[in-house]
Amino acid sequence: xxxxxxxxxxxxxxxxxxxxxxxxxxxxxxxxxxxxxxxxxxxxxxxxxxxxxxxxxxxxxxxxxxxxxxxxxxxxxxxxxxxxxxxxxxxxxxxxxxxxxxxxx
Length: 105
Fold this sequence. Notes:
434 Repressor (Amino-terminal Domain)
């Protein structure tokens, strides 16, 4: 089972973010953030909330190894921020891609 500090590092790397960038987002220095990633500093509930916001995942995805949380949550959060016409356009694109996939099969 992966520890929370390892999951934080994994998400940061997946998004190609530097430790400096994440530290600035959290309003801490890079050395303190490095200690967090290395498991030498406790991660607070506030840290979890801010990191989940930055990474576009649920707090559950950071705290546990919930595989469902990652891509689906990022998409859902981004989708919810769009206005109705943009959401409709995305849905039409999804339908189009599904039709193209069916035609290739």
